[in-house]
Amino acid sequence: MDFSNAQKLDFDVQDFEFPVPRDRKKNAYAATLSPFSEQSGMVCFAAGTQILTPRGEIPIEYLRPGDLVQTRDNGIKPIVWAGSKTLDANTLSRAPYLKPISLSRGVINSSQRMLVSPLHGVVMRRRNGDEYLVRAMDLACMPGGKARVAEGIKTVTYVHIMFDQHEIMFANAAPAESFYPTETTLHAMDDKKSAEIYDLFPALQRNSTLSGYGEMARPMIAFNDLPEHERALGGW
């Protein structure tokens, strides 16, 4: 497959800031987040993440608009937008808060380690059966070490795919979210790239994400509502 025709996600590093867990015991990683606000536009998988499709698992960087992906809630869906951006060693050195989070098999029940951007949401199930999205960054802020900053990564290509609504798809066999176009996400892109999404979803220019695109596939849980230690995630 040729990924060269897919729409590309572009952004300025200075635009990216993300939530700071508060009122909870924090590990060393959490302490590095304190200079940043509670908004961000970076919600992506790292290249190499295997996405489940009707043809089997395919690395996300090879997927493009029109390709079919298996979703958890709504069967097989076509991609409507795809984007990518490579952050080199210099960029990650200047903005270490953009380094990917490494999620081990033990924390998300995946087939292998998964690298995602700090704000990417993965699905967690509570003891009562309710499912929530949990930010990778919040998992990395918890004691335990199964979710951590991938400090050894010197360059990363972030990729995301978007459907006609927010979906849960299977990434390295683990349920995780597709791209969700919030106002902050769209603001972080250059005008050309945000225009591509506005062309697909013109209601986003006049309405909130909820009205113009739809609800999130799962609610996003706050850090303070997570258990104190990642080992408790299975029975919380």
Please give a handful of descriptors for the protein shown.
Hint_dom_sf, alpha+beta, Hedgehog/Intein_dom, Hint domain-containing protein, three-stranded antiparallel β-sheet, globular, Endonuclease - Pi-scei, Chain A, domain 1, 236 residues, 17% helix
Please describe what this structure looks like:
- The protein is globular.
- It has a domain of 154 residues: Hedgehog/Intein (Hint) domain (Endonuclease - Pi-scei, Chain A, domain 1, Beta Complex).
- Strand 9 and strand 10 form a beta hairpin.
- The longest helix is centred in the C-terminal third of the chain and has 10 residues.
- The protein has a three-stranded antiparallel sheet with strand order 1-12-6. Strands 8-7-11 form a three-stranded antiparallel sheet.
- With 236 residues, it is α+β, with helices and mostly antiparallel strands.
- The N and C termini lie far apart (42 Å).
- This is Hint domain-containing protein.
Low-confidence stretches: 1-24, 34-40
Structural class: alpha+beta
Q: Biggest sheet: strands side by side, in what order? A: 1-12-6
Radius of gyration over C-alpha positions, nearest whole angstrom:
17 Å
* SS strand fraction: 15-25%
- Percent helix range: 10-25%
Would you identify the CATH architecture of one domain?
A: Beta Complex
Assigned CATH class of one domain = Mainly Beta
Q: Looking at the chains present, what oligomeric state does this protein adopt?
A: single chain
Nearest-integer average pLDDT: 83
Protein name: Hint domain-containing protein
Pfam families: Hint_2
InterPro entries: Hedgehog/Intein_dom, Hint_dom_sf
